[in-house]
Design goal:
By secondary structure, the chain is mainly α. It has one domain: Winged helix-like DNA-binding domain superfamily/Winged helix DNA-binding domain (Arc Repressor Mutant, subunit A), CATH 1.10.10. It is built from five helices and three strands, in the order ααβααββα. The termini are far apart.
């Protein structure tokens, strides 16, 4: 990227680039950071898994939501889908290289949540107490 000679133009170019970067980051995070995507990535981090095994491992997810989540993760390159041509067909899901790289921040975030849950619980209780006093 070339920078304009005029400092005002330079500032405007930086703002436009920053806004574009923020928009891109926001859009990407919205796609990959929902509750179900993170849980699917965490489970697949243990190794390839078939659909029903994934569903049992995750818990309260519906078949429709899991199928949609897997499609989205596959579309964005985080998950691969392998169909074995038997009757009935067996489908196995696994993390791609990109998915394995994404697993690192997912694990870090999960660890952060576990460490900080007591603090968040205390904050919610304090908030509820303040609201009750109002």
């Amino acid at each position: 990227m070339t920078t304009p000679d005029n400092p005002m133009e330079t500032a405007q170019a930086c703002e436009a680039e920053s806004a574009s970067a923020c928009e891109h980051i926001s859009r990407t995070l919205a796609r990959i950071s929902d509750k179900w995507s993170m849980l699917v990535v965490r489970v697949l981090g243990r190794g390839p898994c078939r659909f029903n095994a994934l569903r049992r491992e995750i818990g309260e997810i519906s078949q429709k939501v899991l199928a949609s989540t897997l499609r989205d993760l596959e579309q964005h390159g985080f998950v691969s889908r392998k169909v074995t041509p038997v009757t009935p067909p067996q489908v196995e899901y696994a993390l791609t290289e990109l998915g394995r790289e994404f697993l690192e921040p997912v694990r870090s975030l999960a660890e952060w949540v576990m460490v900080n849950t007591p603090r968040m619980d205390a904050a919610r209780a304090a908030y509820a107490a303040r609201r009750a006093d109002e």
